[in-house]
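[Solved] Which block belongs to which protein?

Original post:
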Amino acid sequence: MANGTLRAVSQRSSKRTSTVLGGIAALSVSFTVPGALAQEPAPPAAETVELPPVNVEAPAIKKSTAKKAVPAKQAPVASPVAQAPSATEAPSGEGQAETGTGPIKNGYVATQTTTGSKSDTPLREIPQSVSVVGAEQIRDQGSKTWQETLRYVPGVIADGYGLDSRADTAFVRGTEASEFLDGLKRTFNYYTYSYKIDPYFMERIEVLRGPPSVLYGQAPVGGIVNSVSKRPQEEEYREVTVEYGTFDYKQVKTDLTGKLTDDGKWSYRLVGALRDADTQVDYVPDDHMALSPSITYKPVAGTSITLLGHFQNDDSGSTQQFLPHVGTRYPGPSGFIPFDRFIGEPGYDRYDTDVKSGSLFVDHKFDDTFRLRSNVRYTDIHNVYDTYYPAFFFGSEPTDTGSYSDPQQETMRRVKSAGFSNTQTWSTDTNLEAKVQTGLLSHKIIGGIDYSNFQSNQKSGEAIARTPFNVYHPVYGQPDNLGLPIYDPVTGEIIGYDPVSEIPVTFDDRQTITQTGLYVQDQMRLGNWIAVLGARQDWLQQDSITNLDPTNQKNEATTYRAGLMYEFAFGLTPYFSYAESFVPVIGRKQGGGVFDPQLGTMYEVGFKYQPPGANFVINSAVYDISESNRLAEGPNPNFSVQTGEVSIRGFEIEAIGNVTKNVKIVGAYSFTDAKYVGGDQAGFRIESVPEHLASLWAMYSFDTPMLQGWSVGAGVRYIGSSMDGYDTIKTPPVGLVDATLAYDAGDWRWQLSATNLEDKEYLTTCLYRGDCFNGTRRTVTTGLTYRF
């Protein structure tokens, strides 16, 4: 930083392996700077705990001596052809029941969750929609990113903004989901405050659909995605995998776990990955290094203390090019812009993130009545974001019209931006569980307090690169001819430019956000009836200094949750639930004052069905959601506005598990009617939300002598059409095909995975503001795993 300007910290080629510390030009969810926010849409092992007398636990099933289709040395997940145990029996294999933070024991079908209740609870006892994607499904489908793991989950738009090398984004029930890691919030306001999750480091990824605020505080009405880290296991397992794939994708990864001492009191896990790769966009790398060591100490029965570290360095750029409607949604005079087009400058553009994180998980069972759980995490993130993007967000030259600056619609102006941010987050969640009996009514009561402290320090700036850039026939390395726009004080239009030689600092922000929440929940049972009641009080305070202008904001809210279920003996559990959400909106309104928080409610009716003894479940729900005070782009590009209320109604159904001993499936369908009912957009569909989503994945494992060890999988995904927020531009629907072929020979496993097998070039969404987002092209990856 010198003379009030932002300079690139370093220059680099399109491929680099050096670690870069720094941050990113970033803004809050509701306060924008021209161009910076224009790149994003306006934001809008513990034992199983069950409610007595839910089930009577049978003794663990003895391990079968019969020959299995998959050799004995394998990952700590169930054999794809293993016989499913009864829901009341301990799964075969390790002889231990499944927990909500451990591996799924029966293929794709999870039985326990912590996301839905903050205690280890059977999924069938959660009166709300919860889907779990486990490590075996992640492996079979060849998912390499967090978004890819969610492609077969109902109600979830996994690739709302297409391929994005910068951030993970998913929409759940028409709302951008908040992300949690091990039950603690990890995303705050803007994507540059976070980092991309590597699914290889996750034991499971769980989606809680509907308002989660009673348990998690500030979280959107549509739901959250909670990723659960791999933790030490007592059963020894070690593997090393080498992978190669499309776009020169090269990766080595390893997962090691087991006992450190013979008595099992100490155990360890070490997960690591090293990647050198390109992407489908020219000059944009996807290099990644990550290491996650952890250790667990169990001094006595019922007590577990785990310390987990995570260190990650990502050297990349932006695969998001923010290209205009003409050339993406509609052909220009020269046709469509190539999918691999890069509009930045090689050696300048980058998106680099360095992460250091430490977590502590404590679980202590005092006796049969009381249990204490405490999760703590500290995260330090440094990021650098230097990039070019189309200047039509700015308005470009006074003589320009639309997105292009020439009649042939080939050349455009670009914005050159640079920035960095440093972010630190401290999060804790501690609760006490009590299991008591009052007459015929049994209770599992959880009371707790959670706290988070978020701090960020950001600087960013940008200027118009006035030299025209031909997006169809790019010539890199031209002089930028930088200038700052001069606005007409009456009309707000650009009337000229003030030349500059370097990028000035236009956004200088220090921000601190603290949140404290007190919550209580009672899970009750009377015979076959199950009821859940919960309440929470939140307090939030935000203090910031933006360009020397201080802002202070305080919010508090009380939220409630209620649910009622009935368990039939044949495996059907219908339910009804009501829940509320609370999302503080950080930032200032144009003309002064702060935004009101987003408040939401949901009514849901559904069922969960798992026949006794079957390793197959069907879940379905209908819901009605209302939310107020969403944000939208305002007439002044520096500020957002609160539009009023939205209405989201829908239907979901999913089927997952073994239909035969050889066939595993994951099927889902969602209908989402998401509309604005207040503000300037009243009556229009919410942008980027398709009405219809459908998917089906099937994996077949051969057990004939000639083909034993081989398995083949295939999936189809249908993504319906979506609108731009004003019902003017429709993004067409698309159908995509995925496939997997694998051979497992005990110590060795080979796998070939492909997504978008037909290599369709498609758009994920187009926004009214003027740009469209490309989907992910065909990617093929092969990997060889050695277990020892």
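(Second protein starts here: sequence line, then its structure tokens.)
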Amino acid sequence: MRETQNAGWVPGPQFKIRPPVRGLGALERPRLENALSAAADSHRLTLVAAPAGYGKSTFLGDWVRNCDLPCAWLSLDRFDTEPERLFHGVVSAIQAAANKLPLPGNDSLLALDQGLAHGRTASYDLLLGALEHLTEPIVLVIDDVHLAGPGLADGIVGVLAASAPPPLRLVLSGRGHPSIQLERFRYGEGLGELGAAELAFTREEVAQFAYSLGQDPAFDAGSLWKATAGWPVAVHASLVSLAQSRNAPPTTPIATPAHIPLADYVAEEILDQLDPSLAEFILRATTCDWLGRRLAVELYGRPNGSVLLEECLRNGLFIEEHDYRGGESMYRWHSLFAEQCRRIQERRDPLLAERLHRVAARYYQDADVVEGVAQTLKGRAPRQAVMSLGAHWLEFVLGNDAQTLERLCRDLPTPWGEDPEILMIRSVCRSLAGDNAAADELIRRALSRTFVLDATRRRTFDGYRTLFDLLPAGGRADHPATPGDDGRTTADLPGGRRSAPRSTGLFLLAQAEFRLHRSGELATALLQATGDIGNAEQLDALDICAHADLALAFAAAGGLAGADEHATQALGRVEALGWGSQERLAPAWLGRGIARYWNDELKAARTCLAKAQRLGSEFFPSGPLSAIYRVLVDCATGDLARLADSSAALEEFHGRGKYAVSWNALYTVAVAKVAEAKGDLEGALGIIQPLGAGGHGALADTLLAELLRRGGEATTAQRCAELLTDRRRNPYIDTCLSLTEALLAHGAGDTAAAHERLEHAVERAEPASILRPFAERRDELADLLVQHAVWGTAHESFIAALMARDTHGGPRLRAQSYWNLTEREREVLAYMRSIMTAAEIADALFISVNTVKTHERSIYRKLGAGSRRDALKTAARRGIV
């Protein structure tokens, strides 16, 4: 039987069980050898996974030769998909290592017949049994495990990974994660891992390698390291190319990865080794360095693009997952690898390469204008670049990035660089740079070429021209047209009429302000100058958009009634006209939702905010700002299930779009409020700690000051409130801050200051019914409001109403005597805490004086009191108030 089993066995090549010989000039990497030694000492299984060209085999060969432990080596090839061949190679490698160090426990291994692979189960058991006799550890290094295919997990390697005794240490090396299930190692006994990040050359290693290849010690290794991201094969190719160049001196740094000759290597060693569908996906998806799932599907042209994207990520194919503007997960290709793939695609199918660039341009035209323009030029679609710049140039100007805008315009090819709209934009850029002569020349050229514009673009061009007077040096429209006493604005034309182009321009300027996430006051003035001009030139769409954006502008500036009014007008006009562009109503829903929140109508606020978020774009405040307010609403209600959903939505928007720096602070405070709502005040304080004592946006700093106060950081909270002294025009901002200051003063024992700040808060809150700040501080304000009613106030009805709200459903009111009073009696009792007369209470409750007195007598009887003071004392003692 033994002879029968051995009859078909042929000895394998010896080079497969020997580590590769080091090439001349190969870099020794003790950093990696030490890391692998530590991993092999600590874990039974270690994985070395990185794409081609990271020097895995060379580094592992050096480690095997220098390792103190006996090491077995096995290199796999494409024929090792056969279980018998793979088993034979594993046994041969282990026996070769055991033979070098004769120990008593090695006899069982050396006695194994390498041809036993015909009976797989019995063969595996015999090998495992022999390994149990080892008295000293042996390390088995298997290189290129990706060549064994998906059957690797079911063969001897999978069995050894799952069941080998501790003396056998496995080191698996390949271009991606093997088919062996690794999660139980990661979260169980542990898994050693070295990836592309560890295998990449460091800056110092690039310098050392360059010197070993004959470069001058002063060689600029930093530039080469940055261009290649430490990819070893790219570093080597660059240095070889540089050494062969006769025109460049030895110390010339590599400037860009585009000149590194790696396209053939990528094609042969990476793409040709992959499944054809995956290789095709990579060639298409590397059209741009950044992409998300939706763009991956669009570039690939098939629904399984996102699946292949995940496969690239799982196998480490030169791609990493990132948070890009915080929204959908974005993925970034290794820039040099992507560049080589683009060169391959352009070489194989130049027309397809151009079409793919145009697909990417459409994806980025609003999300990232700079990238979008770059893609349109690569796709030979300059008209698309002109349209994108025309739609977004105001955002660059107001964001103080006119230099980038001007560069994008100059990069346009002829004749698009002479487009009137582009010349006008360049004129604005030159004007902002102080070069008025060049600005005048550009606008003259623009006006001389308006004949190339169609009617729609001509109206847009005229609208943009109206903005010149509104853009002073520095690019901020700090002095917009504002309404006068008679309702007209300084933007009015003679005869009380404004042109539709000018109104369009003002509207676009207001939109740019919003997209930059600035204060609503400037946008409000601009939008008021936009709408309601009452002539035939005004388009219905512009009027609806103006009202919708005005709703948000008023809400952001604190005009809650105006926000509700304009939202109603926008929604009503859309319904009357049957207009289908619902997404432009997102600002109206957001403005209404903000107003409802500050009015403490939380259920209605949630409905409006959800609508705004559903309709809104991530690049316009209706999306991210509605996410912020949804978190505030759910924190207020304490509904943890809804809070989890709104927190997830907030994370989706984090970092997306183009906003001012206040967005990050607002996001941070919102995350802290979520922690506070879950009962982790200490964690909330840790989250906001990097924000210091303010200096961010008004809303962010207002919420920050109150969080600091509740967390016991009174000094920092006071300083944060003081920094907002000049930004209190907004009523709900001023109300919140004043209440925070009142409670800080009350806590410090400064009674006069506490009542002064409370009176100011009530004065600002009453006209707009701003109730949420009081509700949020209900427990801490309860006693102070009673004291304030006695102290004296000009807003007795409002304070009494606040105290009445406090009696409904509050956790403090649970004594048995509470239930002995009727609903109306509890309302009257709440008003009795103020110094209001019976007549004034009657007016507040819309009932007669006699009815109030009847309720008072009933209250006295039920509480056993003879006067208002006695009734209130008894009610307080029994927990009723």
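Accepted answer:
You had them paired correctly. Confirming on the second one: The mean pLDDT is 79.
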